[in-house]
Amino acid sequence: MKIKIIIFFTIVLYVLNIESRIISYKTIPEFLKLYPNTNWIKCTENYAFDYPEFPLYPEYKEKYFPNKGFHSDISILESPDAIISIDSYGYIFINDIFLKEMQVKNFNPFKEKEIIYRPNFENFFKVKGRVAIINHLFSSIYGLFINDILMALALLEIQGIEYDYLWIPCQLAYQKEALDIWGIDKSKIIPLEHGQILSADMIILPTSVSQNQGKVFYNVNYMPDFLIKYVRKKMLEGVKKMEIKNKFPEKIFISRKDANNRRIIPNEDQVFELFVPLGYKRIEFAKLSMAEKIKATNEAKRIVNFLGSGSTNILFASKDLMYYEIQNQMVEATFYYMAHVLGMHYEIINASTVNDLNIPAFLPGKYLPLEIIQNFIKNHSEL
Question: Could you tell me the pTM of the whole model?
Answer without folding.
Answer: 0.91
